[in-house]
Design goal:
The structure is a homodimer of 307-residue chains. With 307 residues, chain A is α/β, with parallel strands linked by helices. The first copy, chain A, has 9 helices and 13 strands. Helices cover 32% and strands 25% of the residues of chain A. In chain A, α7 runs parallel beside α8. The interface between A and B is large, with 61 and 60 residues.
């Protein structure tokens, strides 16, 4: 059975504090702590590109677990801020890391739902074509496209990259997925002329409407209810969205992780960062990951601890 | 068994003739006909975006076969020239075509190898998650990024989009794939500052080196030899590259399709356009598709006629 054997993440050291931007944006401590829930955002250096961030995450993976570069069969990078539009960032990584010639490498373009989709894609691909070891990267440095004058986005998004080692010796295995798309609202998160535009309210309303419904579908068809899940790994869009979804689903507060106050909404990296934090906590037998955003697109996954 | 039930393609009507550019680029008829093998390139209108080209391909699909929009479970768009970097073009398509809410939609970023990888991804995804109908789009309008003064690229690339209907009632089913990546040469095809750069010689050398080797691997492990394949669908990079690969493999000329003299190298659309041309030719029992390019990335697929 394939699944996540290990996860590592890289969050750049540099921070920009939202407290220093209170006057500029007319916001207060209450807004920073309880509404957006982001006190400071992580920002990559100008010299760092998306592939560099992925390499840093991969170095951290190798600090945690023995990985032979030559064993890597599949590399998928989930990003909408690649190094270049051509070629795919996965190929650049393949070159820089010196992976073997019969290694598969492609990028998947998705935003905040990207990790869950990426996990579904790499697992299916490896299962069907009988590959043993894969790397699923997420890296979407929004600092490349956020307008520092835009209150809606510049206080919220942080830079990060993650890598998940997918193998036949998993800690967590994906038991089931539900997927969704509403392309009619695609303009709610859009990057034009290299600048991000976000309709935060539109996305929050959509997420609160569709995500809980699909989580209940996922649980029901696996014979589970809300209380059977040990941890909810909800995409860390903002404090408001995580709280709203938790409330709507009636989740026990202790089961919902909220983690991003010191680095921000890292798009497709937010869920794997949370999974990393529960990898060693054996009290977590069942976890539920829920990603939603750009597209609009969403996906939920049921993760079962194997060991 | 999943596979390709139908294919349709859209090539914009507008053409730019290479004969009118002989003086500008210091080329002659021999070069146009026998070296690059592209007499004119297809160019989309400025008003047309990538998603519009996909929609035109989808309309043509619906002219050929009854498709119920509500039955579409999965939409994958292979592109490196999306409408926007955010959101994925598949979501825009999903919205414009009014597909259902539980439809999966994501983009895959790959170039000339993109159709073969895309076919492998959508097939594995649908097989594992039990989806019945999927659409695999390819659309990579290089006219967006080609510098009209660049002889290496502006004589070669044409715009097109294709859509393959993937279902359990296939005409052709993918029997086996081989995949490859050489990221160390990623700079051989690169788009920076919205302008394409290509090291044509580098890519041709790489393709002639790695592609025949992998084709032989694919044939051997399926108990086949060169003569058992009825048609070779080699990525239509140029006349030179198709001829060179055919010669290196010792292919019978009648088994190699060359088709692009009136529209150009359409990147990930070149192979599905060729498949469309053999869909109804029942003498083609076995075909081999071979994509290679951006990354550098390559993939070969063995296609078997089911009906």
């Amino acid at each position: 059975m394939l699944g996540i054997e290990e996860i590592a993440y890289y969050i750049p050291e540099k921070r920009v504090s939202n407290y220093n931007r209170k006057e500029k944006f007319g916001i207060n401590d209450e807004f920073i702590r309880n509404r957006i829930g982001v006190e400071e955002i992580a920002v990559k250096s100008d010299l760092e590109n998306t592939s560099d961030m992925c390499i840093n995450a991969y170095k951290k993976l190798k600090d945690k677990i023995a990985v032979n570069d030559n064993d890597i069969d599949v590399v998928i990078v989930v990003t909408q801020n690649p190094d270049f539009n051509i070629p795919q960032t996965s190929a650049i990584l393949h070159g820089k890391l010196g992976f073997k010639e019969d290694c598969v490498a492609f990028d998947v373009s998705l935003g905040c739902s990207g990790f869950v989709y990426g996990l579904s894609v790499i697992t299916a691909f490896m299962q069907v074509y009988k590959f043993k070891k894969g790397l699923l990267f997420t890296a979407d440095p929004y600092s490349k496209i956020v307008d520092p004058a835009d209150k809606n986005t510049s206080l919220l998004f942080g830079d990060a990259a993650t890598v998940s080692l997918i193998s036949e010796n998993p800690v967590f295995s994906a038991q089931d997925f539900v997927f969704g798309t509403n392309g009619s609202c695609y303009k709610d998160l859009l990057c034009e002329n290299n600048t991000l535009y976000m309709n935060g309210r539109g996305i929050a309303n959509f997420a609160i409407k569709v995500v809980p419904k699909d989580i209940l579908v996922l649980l029901a068809r696996n014979g589970l209810t809300i209380v059977d899940i040990d941890k909810y790994l909800i995409h860390q869009g903002s404090r408001f969205i995580v709280d709203s979804l938790s409330k709507k689903l009636g989740l026990d507060e202790s089961k919902v992780i909220y983690d991003i106050s010191s680095y921000g909404n890292t798009v497709s990296s937010s869920i794997p960062i949370l999974i990393e934090k529960i990898m060693k906590d054996k009290s977590v037998k069942l976890a539920l990951g829920s990603g939603f955003g750009v597209g609009l697109s969403w996906a939920n996954v049921l993760l079962k601890r194997i060991r």
